[in-house]
Amino acid sequence: MAATLIDGKAAAASLRERLAHVAGFFRASTGRPAALATVLVGEDPASAVYIRSKRSATAEAGMESLHHALPADTSQAELLALIERLNADPAVDGILVQLPLPSQMDAALVISAIDPDKDVDGFHVVNAGRLAVGDPAALVPCTPLGCLHLLKATLGDLSGRHAVVIGRSNIVGKPMAMLLLSESCTVTIAHSRTRDLPEVCRSAGILVAAVGRPEMVRGDWIKPGACVIDVGINRVPANEPGKTRLVGDVAFAEATEVAGAITPVPGGVGPMTIAMLLRNTLVAAHRRAGLQAPE
Ligand code: NDP
């Protein structure tokens, strides 16, 4: 039987609608819109596309999008000075520095300069630490937060389930594992050195693939009925010469025959990431204004 398709596009659309209401209440209570400052250094075309979508989603939700486009040869000191100004600006609730940064910059140092309470990407070590110790003040990275939202919407209570997360990056795998742990899952984190990965995956009631390897997870790696969240976004050659298409880290056609529920690529996790960026900005805005933050 084919798995239930987890429609991330629909989930993100309904979340964004709800967040637009929250943004309206915020504006009415404080007399100003919640504001997200985005910073793009250089002209990487993929980064420019991501920033455009983030900015238009911010504006669509009734929030203010303040953009800073810096030339590729900007010095690190100049970027740090801009972050200082944004940290100090009372009209700015969230700061997002688009990664990757040009090679003359130390991304970890730049991220660590952002005020943790405005760090809406959730990449600052203070937020990673807050998440690890279960501090509700954590701003949590958007992609894993989106995955958790889809998992809870699909499965309800996650407590006691065995979750396997493939990938241990600081932006997806590790925070995903922490979130699942905080939901009382039994969590296994797999990575490139994991022995017998297919067998490890077969033990999972929840399988999250965040690897960056096209269709690596095969149908026979999946426990029948498992819930599969495919974070991977991989561009591969399409059947037509010169054309490409997007695939996930999971071999979708095979997986859908075995899994209970699965996210497609595209249209699964991807749309949730931007919705969660809006959510984090509103959470940061509410906390800074001393208001009850939205869920
Ligand atoms: P990274 O490259 O930072 O991390 C990949 C992880 O996968 C590493 O922990 C690595 O292990 C592990 N890995 C690599 N090869 C294997 C293997 N053969 N077997 C098991 N594990 C392996 O990637 P990200 O976490 O940043 O992203 C992962 C994927 O998610 C990418 O496809 C990316 O495009 C996508 N993504 C999607 C987003 C969305 O909005 N939907 C947002 C962010 C990312 P090790 O640590 O041992 O090297």
Automatic annotation (TrEMBL):
Its EC number is 1.5.1.5, 3.5.4.9. Pathway: One-carbon metabolism; tetrahydrofolate interconversion. NADP(+) binds at residues 167-169, 233. InterPro entries: Aminoacid_DH-like_N_sf, NAD(P)-bd_dom_sf, THF_DH/CycHdrlase, THF_DH/CycHdrlase_cat_dom, THF_DH/CycHdrlase_CS, THF_DH/CycHdrlase_NAD-bd_dom. Keywords: Amino-acid biosynthesis, Histidine biosynthesis, Hydrolase, Methionine biosynthesis, Multifunctional enzyme, NADP, One-carbon metabolism, Oxidoreductase, Purine biosynthesis. SUPFAM superfamilies: Aminoacid dehydrogenase-like, N-terminal domain, NAD(P)-binding Rossmann-fold domains. It comes from the Bacteria. The keyword NADP applies. It catalyses: (6R)-5,10-methylene-5,6,7,8-tetrahydrofolate + NADP(+) = (6R)-5,10-methenyltetrahydrofolate + NADPH; (6R)-5,10-methenyltetrahydrofolate + H2O = (6R)-10-formyltetrahydrofolate + H(+). Transmembrane segments: none annotated. It holds the Pfam family THF_DHG_CYH. Residues 6-121 form the Tetrahydrofolate dehydrogenase/cyclohydrolase catalytic domain. Residues 141-288 form the Tetrahydrofolate dehydrogenase/cyclohydrolase NAD(P)-binding domain. CDD domains: NAD_bind_m-THF_DH_Cyclohyd (cd01080). Coiled coil: none annotated. Belongs to the tetrahydrofolate dehydrogenase/cyclohydrolase family. Homodimer. Catalyzes the oxidation of 5,10-methylenetetrahydrofolate to 5,10-methenyltetrahydrofolate and then the hydrolysis of 5,10-methenyltetrahydrofolate to 10-formyltetrahydrofolate. This is Bifunctional protein FolD. It comes from Sphingomonas swuensis.
